[in-house]
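User: Just a sanity check before I run the rest of the batch. Below are the C-alpha cells for the first item. I only need the designed sequence back.
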C-alpha cells in the first residue's frame, strides 16, 4: 500500500517535514517514491503541497495519513480566506 505521509528533517528541536509518497512498509526517514511538499511548523505552520501530484497519487490509490489529511483540510479552509 502506498501512503502520503510526513518525513521528519531539520535540526534538533527545529523540526521540518517533507510530505512524501512512500510504501507503507518503509520507515519514516527511509526510502520514498516522491516528495510532493513541505510542512514547517516553526514558521506559522507553513504548508506547501503540489496539488497536481497529490491528485495524481490519490487517483492511483495512495492514502494520506491522518496528519496529512488534517493539514490538507486546514489548508483548503485557509486558502479561500486568503484569496478574499
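Assistant: Here's the designed sequence for the first item:
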Amino acid at each position: 500500500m502506498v501512503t502520503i505521509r510526513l518525513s521528519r528533517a531539520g535540526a534538533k528541536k527545529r523540526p521540518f517535514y517533507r510530505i512524501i509518497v512512500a510504501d507503507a512498509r518503509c520507515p519514516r526517514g527511509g526510502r520514498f517514491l516522491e516528495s510532493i511538499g513541505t510542512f514547517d511548523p516553526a514558521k506559522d505552520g507553513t504548508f506547501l503541497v503540489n496539488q497536481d501530484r497529490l491528485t495524481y497519487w490519490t487517483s492511483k490509490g495512495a492514502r494520506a495519513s491522518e496528519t496529512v489529511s488534517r493539514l490538507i483540510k486546514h489548508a483548503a479552509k485557509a486558502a479561500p480566506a486568503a484569496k478574499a
